[in-house]
Protein 1
Amino acid sequence: MIKLPSGARLLPWSTPEGKPCYVVGDGTGYVSRVADNVERVQLDMAAKLLGYADDMLADRKTTPAQLRFLAARLTESLRDAHRIAESRGARLP
């Protein structure tokens, strides 16, 4: 787990170069609210993606290309969820 300075938050997005973004504050500012909304959308998308994965894996007609596409989206979703968990874990007392 990452260790952040007091009041810092890892944001659910990164720079164009892939570096992490942070905000420092009490968690009530505009950037924190946007981050909360982005995290909510990411977690909702992950839940929906799991449903699609269940359906595709149960369908014997699913093609290898479809499974590769699914694996790529699941990887993205897992990366987002991991980043959210890291951010929230770093803010625990």
Note: The chain has a mean pLDDT of 93.
Protein 2
Amino acid sequence: MVLALLLGVLALAIGGCACVVWASRGGPPWARAVSSATLAAADLIRGAQKRRRRGLRGSSGGDGDGG
């Protein structure tokens, strides 16, 4: 079951990347829509990773004395 889910996510990612390439070469309107959604999802993921890294870096800067 987990393998099927992972394969589905992989297929969506590959399909999204293909639509980005196709839309950049002047594909149909639906490919441009999928491309926009794929790029927006990538930006959201990238932003979440940056916030997570900033949070990890900020919490480890103390000297450990608690006050």
Note: The radius of gyration is 19 Å.
